[in-house]
Amino acid sequence: MKNNTILHFHDFLFEYDIQDGLDDMGFEKPTPIQEQAIPIILEGHDLIGCAQTGTGKTAAFLLPVLNQMVLSPTTNTDTLVIVPTRELALQIYQAFQGFAYYTNITSQVVYGGTDGISFEQEKKALIHGANVIIGTPGRLIAHLNMGNLKLEHLRHLILDEADRMLDMGFIEDILKIIGKAPKNRQTLMFSATMPPKIRTFAAKLLHNPKEISLAVSKPAERVTQGVYMVNDNDKNALAVSILNEKKLPSVIVFTGTKVKAKQLERDLMRAKVDARSIHSDLDQKEREEVLRAFRSRRLPVLVATDVLSRGIDIEDIGMVINFDVPGDAEDYIHRIGRTARAESKGEAYTFVNGDDRRKFKRIEELMDMKVQVMPNPEGIKPLGNEVSQGPKKHGFKGKSAHRGGHNQGGNQNRKPR
Ligand code: AMP
Fold first, then answer.
1. Domain boundaries defined on the chain
2. Residue 189 contacts by C-beta under 8 Å, 6 or more apart in sequence?
3. pLDDT band at 310, cuts 50/70/90?
4. DSSP structure string for 342-378
5. Pocket lining: 334 vs ligand 1, CB cutoff 6 Å
6. Please, which residues have CB within 8 angstroms of residue 325's CB and are 6 or more apart in sequence?
7. Which CATH class is domain 9-213?
8. What CATH fold (topology level) applies to the domain 223-404?
9. Of 41, 103, 197, 367, which is most buried with the most CB atoms under 10 A?
10. What's the gap in Å between 54 CA and the centre of ligand 1?
């Protein structure tokens, strides 16, 4: 980014024990968000950061806070990180364990859905005043109500994926938790999107915050994008056709809701596609098992919703299918950014029904590019003219064979350029 003065983590002058942890983890050069956020947090400012997963935001907020704890140790709970999902909580906890490996700072992750034994373990750690607590709102409230969680000495409060938490209806819980924390704390809020409701929320909780925003990134050029114009009734068949044709080892299919995710899992299995869905009705063990199978490539196809996929770091996804057009443009970029990580190539296909054309058009505007319309495979009807929004006004330039109906044969194996 603009500021090129920081070239190495050494330049932040973190305490030796922290730098040792970073060296072990192979962190050398800070990412742009780390470059921008770390100095602001070290100076003690509140911060609101607009950044997505994959930008390195976890280290951006954990490292400076950890540094402050090493400089002035405490036996109390010093830092609370509130996140929307168990998976993200666990992921941040694991990152923290790496950064804090050579320090004496203690941490505990707390999340719902686990057995009584875990609850007791969490309780013990909380009562002993684990320095850093990472948790989901519901479980934190449970511990707060039982008097296990004590926040009166809290110095740092971090809200990660704030937009997701509001979408999931956690606002009351979060306000209740924060109500127990001292007012003169440092508060850091990260969100992948910055709608007005997030700004209102931030204005309530943050004090004169500095703001950083990583402009919504364009998708990597290595991602081949395509859009299929298709009726809802034909989406299953289209998904099966693409999955069978490509036969890639690691594919995520995103659906708009968990009900659809479950339904699609059943339909894909019925069509002999080895797919599992991950949704909030699974218990923690089951979710971890699905993710493990997917990460290790025993499971080729994962069906997921945005809520559960966000923040989960899985490398080497070969293809993303947007079974439904995501609610906002940032989500689209976030979803397809899961492919083509590092130097690899990726493919991303989006199923657009008549009602979603306008939504997809906005996504194209945000990316400042047109996405190629793919010819539907044989047997998949082209999108009819039954849709109210005129395709002329909001439709796609380029190929229009999908509307004409003359693409019914011979296109099955055509790939995007
Ligand atoms: P995050 O966006 O925080 O979920 O980070 C995404 C991935 O990038 C994680 O696997 C991190 O371990 C990794 N990462 C973050 N910052 C750096 C860095 N400066 N150098 C190398 N890897 C990093």
1. 9-213, 223-404
2. 47, 48, 49, 158, 159, 162, 201, 202, 205, 206, 209
3. low
4. TT--EEEEEEE-GGGHHHHHHHHHHHTSPPEEPPPPT
5. no
6. 332, 350, 351, 352, 356, 359, 360, 363
7. alpha beta
8. Rossmann fold (3.40.50)
9. 41
10. 6
154 pLDDT more than 90:
yes
Tell me the per-residue pLDDT of 67-114, one tens digit each, with 9 for 90 and over: 999 999 999 999 999 999 998 999 999 999 999 999 999 999 999 876
Report the alpha-carbon angle 196-202-206, nearest 5. 155
Predicted confidence at residue 63, as pLDDT, reads: 98
Which of 27, 91, 214 is the pocket-test mutation for ligand 1 (most atoms within 8 Å of CB)? 27
Q: Is the pTM of this model over 0.85?
A: no
Q: How far is the CA of 177 from the centre of ligand 1 (A)?
A: 28
Q: Among residues 53, 56, 54, 21, which one has the least CA distance to residue 35?
A: 56
Ligand 1 mutation target, pool 24, 65, 90, 313, most atoms within 8 A of CB? 313
What does the block give as tokens for 34?
């780390």
pLDDT value for 71: 97
